[in-house]
Amino acid sequence: MKKIIHTASTRGHANHGWLEANHSFSFANFYDAKRIQFGALRVLNDDLIAPSMGFGTHPHKNMEIITIPLKGVLKHKDNMANDWIPVLPGEVQVMSAGKGVYHSEINGSANEHLGLFQIWIMPEKNEVTPRYDQKGFDIKDRKNKLQLLVNSFNSDDDSLKIHQDAQVYRIDLDKNQDFNYQLKSKNRGVYVMNISGDFEIDSTKLGSRDAVGIYETDSFVIKSLSNSELLLIEVPM
C-alpha cells in the first residue's frame, strides 16, 4: 500500500472576502508541483461563500465537475437552459463540460454562508455533448456503509453519471467502527477526505479536513476514532 497524506493545514488557501477557499490540489494561485492531481482526480476545493455572492458566468471544457453542498443553498445557472436551479445539502450536482459550457454558481441565501466541495475529474473521452444533472441522497443510506453518489455511464445503478470510470462515495461512521474498503483493481486509487471527525488508516490518524490518497493495494481498513463523515473518490491512476 502507498499513501499520500494531505493534512488540512497544507492545502492551498485563499481568502477573497466573499470567498474562502481551500485547495487540495494546485488551483488558481496555489501551485505545488507535487500536488497537481491524484490519478484522474484533478481538483478538490473546499469553499465557503458569503451570502448572495458567487461565481459569475465562466466557461469550462472537457472536465467532469461534481459539486456537493454541505450547508446553505447553492444556485446554478448555465447555457443549457438551466436557470437558477437550487442545489441543497443532501443533493449532489454533476456537469459534464465536454465541448464547452458556460455557467454561474452563487450562494442562494441572503443570510447564510454556503459551504461546498467541488470536485473535478478528468474524463475518459473529450468533446462530449455537455450535460447537467442533480440528485438527492438520503443521509440514512450512508450510516456505516458506502453511499454511491457518482459512477461511470457504463454502470447501471441509480447514481449520477460521469464520463470516467470513477466513483464518489460518502460514508458516516459511528465511533469505533472498522470499515473495509475494496478497490476495483490495483490500477486505481482512493482519495479519502475527512469531512468531520477522526479516523485512522494503516496507523495514520487523520482529523477534520485531513485527506489521504491510497493506491497500489486491493483494500484498506478505515478505523473511526470518533463519529466521522468521509468523502471517498476512487479513480484510475
Automatic annotation (TrEMBL):
<feature type="domain" description="Quercetin 2,3-dioxygenase C-terminal cupin">
    <location>
        <begin position="149"/>
        <end position="235"/>
    </location>
</feature>
<dbReference type="InterPro" id="IPR041602">
    <property type="entry name" value="Quercetinase_C"/>
</dbReference>
<dbReference type="Pfam" id="PF02678">
    <property type="entry name" value="Pirin"/>
</dbReference>
<comment type="similarity">
    <text>Belongs to the pirin family.</text>
</comment>
<dbReference type="InterPro" id="IPR011051">
    <property type="entry name" value="RmlC_Cupin_sf"/>
</dbReference>
<dbReference type="InterPro" id="IPR014710">
    <property type="entry name" value="RmlC-like_jellyroll"/>
</dbReference>
<protein>
    <recommendedName>
        <fullName>Pirin family protein</fullName>
    </recommendedName>
</protein>
<dbReference type="InterPro" id="IPR003829">
    <property type="entry name" value="Pirin_N_dom"/>
</dbReference>
<dbReference type="Pfam" id="PF17954">
    <property type="entry name" value="Pirin_C_2"/>
</dbReference>
<dbReference type="InterPro" id="IPR012093">
    <property type="entry name" value="Pirin"/>
</dbReference>
<feature type="domain" description="Pirin N-terminal">
    <location>
        <begin position="10"/>
        <end position="121"/>
    </location>
</feature>
